[in-house]
């Protein structure tokens, strides 16, 4: 049995070559990288598309990317709430930052804040960091992936109450993302943490 016959038999049995199987799994990432390349150039032609494809393949083959584990779960209602709250936060924060920028008596008082996330998922961590950075006034400057820590620069944090509010906003964003697209285990963990936090607040009051 020669190599050509073996290849035909392996394909007939449904065993694709490793390269093509890996390429197929990374196809969404490849498409996203090509689209990003085109958006960066702001011009669509044959050369831009070809170079985008070549660079996308080079990046995915040469650089190690940790696997992203998707939950396969999506809650439409929670997803809608997440989108509405994101839009609301962006609008309110944009107005606040604009008013602060034109205030002649404003003295900047900013902070680098470490926020301990409730989950350890790389996917949830990335989405939370992106959602926080989209809202004006806060931007993630570093991520401690091993410990699940986000370090963000927050505008207008003059008091401990301002810092505590910023941390609550970050954890609230993470909570909404988990309830929308996280696993059932992550959602239950978030709900349990929320119940414990509310019970502690009632006990304190």
UniProtKB/TrEMBL annotation:
InterPro entries: Cation_antiport_E
Pfam families hit by this protein: MNHE
GO terms assigned for molecular function: monoatomic cation transmembrane transporter activity
Subcellular location: Cell membrane
Keywords associated with the record: Cell membrane, Membrane, Transmembrane, Transmembrane helix
GO cellular component assignments: plasma membrane
Lipid bilayer topology: Multi-pass membrane protein
TM helices/strands, residue ranges: 23-40, 46-65, 86-106
Chief localisation class: membrane
Record carries keyword Cell membrane: yes
Signal peptide: none
PANTHER family the UniProt entry points to: NA(+)/H(+) ANTIPORTER SUBUNIT E1, NA(+)_H(+) ANTIPORTER SUBUNIT E1
Membership in a protein family: Belongs to the CPA3 antiporters (TC 2.A.63) subunit E family.
Protein's recorded name: Na+/H+ antiporter subunit E
């Amino acid at each position: 049995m020669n190599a050509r016959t073996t290849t035909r038999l392996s394909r007939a049995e449904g065993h694709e070559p490793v390269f093509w199987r890996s390429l197929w799994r990374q196809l969404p990432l490849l498409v996203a990288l090509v689209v990003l390349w085109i958006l960066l150039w702001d011009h669509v032609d044959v050369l831009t598309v070809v170079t985008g494809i070549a660079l996308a393949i080079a990046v995915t083959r040469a650089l190690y990317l940790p696997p992203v584990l998707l939950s396969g779960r999506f809650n439409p209602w929670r997803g809608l709430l997440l989108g509405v709250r994101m839009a609301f936060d962006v609008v309110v924060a944009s107005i606040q930052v604009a008013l602060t920028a034109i205030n002649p008596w404003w003295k900047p008082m900013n902070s680098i804040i470490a926020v301990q996330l409730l989950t350890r998922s790389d996917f949830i961590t990335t989405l939370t960091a992106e959602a926080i950075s989209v809202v004006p006034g806060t931007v993630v400057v570093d991520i401690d992936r091993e410990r699940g820590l986000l370090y963000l620069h927050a505008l207008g944090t003059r008091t401990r109450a301002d810092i505590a509010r910023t941390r609550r906003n970050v954890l609230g964003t993470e909570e909404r993302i988990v309830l929308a697209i996280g696993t059932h285990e992550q959602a239950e963990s978030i709900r349990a943490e929320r119940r414990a936090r509310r019970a502690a607040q009632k006990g304190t009051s």
